[in-house]
Amino acid sequence: MKRAVFLDRDGTINEDVGDLYEIERVAFIPGALDALKMLGRRFSLFIVTNQSGIGKGVFDLETYHSFERDYSSLLSGEGIDIVETYCCPHRRDEPCICRKPSTHFMELASERHGIDLARSFVIGDHPHDVEMGLGAGARAIYLLTGHGMKHRSELVVVPHHVADDLAGAAVWICSLD
Ligand SMILES: [Mg+2]
Ligand SMILES: [Zn+2]
């Protein structure tokens, strides 16, 4: 079975600018692309993102999908292959099975792509990223980029590691091998 890294998107790979659906507004966090390249050599990469702006009607699914295609192209242009991007489009107050910290998408990835979750990692700047990772039996890394600083006190579970940014997380993960 394969190992994977499940990445949050906003505040983890790119700066969190709020509802993001225009490719021109994407600003990658310094070091993030090199970190993805490093991780991509050893792991299958997935993105798991909550985009409640869709459910709130700020932007629609069609716009989201077009953005996601462009975003993946930006990454593949850098030699970074994202196996799948999973998005929860629902509002916070809407019952759904896919919103992080739900482990739904990780289980889906495991089934579809033969991923061993116990040997996989989750990286994100929000407590719900850590909760998802631990819930799925993976190792979780909390980042201080994005909203990481602000939400740090809200962590109700203990991450396996706290890193300054994605670059730091990649170095830590690769040091375990
Ligand atoms: Mg985030
Ligand atoms: Zn959902």
What does this structure look like?
By secondary structure, the protein is α/β, with parallel strands linked by helices. It has a single domain, classed as Rossmann fold (3-Layer(aba) Sandwich). 36% of the residues lie in helices and 17% in strands. The protein contains seven helices and six strands; from the N terminus they run βαβααβαβαβαβα. It has a six-stranded parallel β-sheet with strand order 3-2-1-4-5-6, with helices on both faces. Helix 1 links the parallel strand 1 and strand 2. The longest helix is centred in the middle third of the chain and has 17 residues. The chain is globular and about 45 Å long. Bound molecules: magnesium ion and zinc ion. The site of zinc ion has 5 residues, from loops.
Look at the helices and sheets and give the structural class. Answer: alpha/beta
Mean pLDDT: 97
Dominant shape: globular
Order of helices and strands: EHEHHEHEHEHEH
**Ranges with pLDDT <50 over ≥5 residues?**
none
Question: Count of helical segments?
Answer: 7
Give the total of beta strands: 6
Helix fraction by DSSP (H/I, runs of at least 4): 25-40%
**Biggest β-sheet strands, sense, barrel:** 6 strands, parallel
In the CATH hierarchy, the third-tier topology is known as Rossmann fold
Please give the radius of gyration in angstroms: 15 Å
Bound ligands, named by name, code or SMILES: magnesium ion, zinc ion
Distance between the amino and carboxyl termini: 16 Å
Give me the CATH superfamily.
HAD superfamily/HAD-like
For the largest beta sheet, what order do the strands appear in spatially? 3-2-1-4-5-6
Strand content: 15-25%
Number of domains: 1
- Look at the structure and give the CATH class: Alpha Beta
The CATH architecture can be given as 3-Layer(aba) Sandwich
